[in-house]
Amino acid sequence: MGKVEIARAVLAAEVAKRVLDHAQLRLIAELDDPHELALLLHIPLGAARRKLEQAAALDRLPVVAGLLRDGRIDLDRFEVVCKRTENLDAGQARAVDTGLTGAAEWTTQELKSETDRLICLVDPAGAERRHVRAVRKSSQVSYQSMPDGMALLTAYLDAVPARAIFDQITADAETLDDDRTWGEKQADVFLERMLGSGRPVTVHTDLTISAKTLIGLTEEPGHISGVGPVDAATAREIAAQGDWRKVLVDEVGMPIGVGRQRYRPPEALKEFVRVRDRVCQAPGCMRPAAQCEIDHARGFASGGVTDACNLGPFCALHHYLKTIGLYRFTRELDGTRHWTTPLGFVHTTRPKPIAEPDPP
């Protein structure tokens, strides 16, 4: 059996497993005792309760449940939507579910981001309220002793400052040119920052927000590089603080200004690419566009032009794989992208709009 046939067999086995997971949940929906289920399946009581919750969600989320039934998404992705919509009422959950028809094409991380965006749309006030409550009740720093004189220091924080901290640690570590491992550099930078090294802050929050949201005409969520969707109120609050690199877009997603400056070439082209493509163009890669390299879809040496239609972001790894020809990449005029693997499998992705289009 060749590698292509093996790959197809692996996919067929995965599809069969997903179909069986759905069938099992349909049967579990007829049960109501988590203790009985835990004993039957030899699983923890908490896991049994979660299976009952997933079973109950089959009728509440018919679109993603149907994708699971047809073997097009796995149980992990179904659980993402279940967990994120559990605080919504039935109508709101159904509205989010209806917007997830493309979930079969997304990774778990992409599905999380799109689900969060839809929740901000259908329940903006609730999204803000839940965020404020989570910051007040769940924020914490914990310490756990580990073997070999090590310790695990964990911080559960608001996502926006947490991302800023991580990006600053990464930026500092990238300036170190010695034989320490990457993990050592990050850990040492973290210690220096926390213990008062006095280094200046050099990173900023990359916030994309529509002009209409900024002035309060819509509740379209903003988007923060490396974090994902944030509710409109949070986006406006960050904008008001001023310590961020803001990108304003009009209702069709065209950039109209950065900070207090108008766009001017050549920076205009680079920023437009980052606004249009928030992450690396490779399927499933969530590396923020601001941390990517700008790539010509049709190579410059082959006659590819340097304009917004032919440019897009790739992280360093995927840019390298494309450049050496191991993976092939093409993009259509409407932005649809095709990523062809060495075994000949084609993965197609489509760009997402920055802002929701106005109703007709």
TrEMBL record:
InterPro entries: DUF222, HNH_nuc. Pfam families: DUF222. It comes from the Bacteria. Residues 268-320 form the HNH nuclease domain. This is HNH nuclease domain-containing protein. It comes from Kutzneria viridogrisea. The lineage of its organism: Bacteria, Bacillati, Actinomycetota, Actinomycetes, Pseudonocardiales.
